[in-house]
Structure prediction request, 179 residues.
Amino acid sequence: MLSVEILKGDFFRRKTTAVAQELLGKFLVRKTKMQELACMITEVEAYDGFADKASHAHRGKTMRNEVMFGPPGYWYIYLVYGMHQMLNIVTGEEGYPAAILIRAVEGMSGPGRVTKLLAIDHSLNKKPAERASGLWIEDRGVVIPKHAIEKTPRIGVAYAGPEWSQKPYRFVLKVKRGN
Prediction:
């Protein structure tokens, strides 16, 4: 029998890079009036605090990023290029701005494609990652060994300078299920 646990705030109230790696193999679940779809997370990027020059919170709190300063386990969703919604989950302690971008799920890579696939839009911004919001993350017992995780620099953050753009804060599942 499948054991399923919905991840709660305590899971996310930890070091951002640790949570990011542990999200690999978890399932992003989206429930709409029409359907419920669950996809295994296969790629994420960590954005960690005030010092991280690639983070939206680097220059302080704004109306756009204020959710990053709130409690862990809430969604931070923003629009890029006027067309792609980016899905992030807030991590760490309240008041410390950190979040993880969901970059890919099994069968779909690219953060904008993931949000389109799952019908995720800005209406979910600042909502808790729980069933009531229609978007949550489940642990279905998939175990990802450390050697199956590739750590690389984040994508598209050259503006942050080499110190931050080259940090290995992107985590990718090297081996897909069934291989």
Summary: Residues 5-173 form a domain with the 3-methyladenine DNA Glycosylase; Chain A fold (CATH 3.10.300.10). The beta strands are 5-6, 27-31, 36-48, 75-80, 84-90, 98-105, 108-109, 135-139, 149-152, 170-173. The CA atoms of residues 50 and 127 lie 22 Å apart.
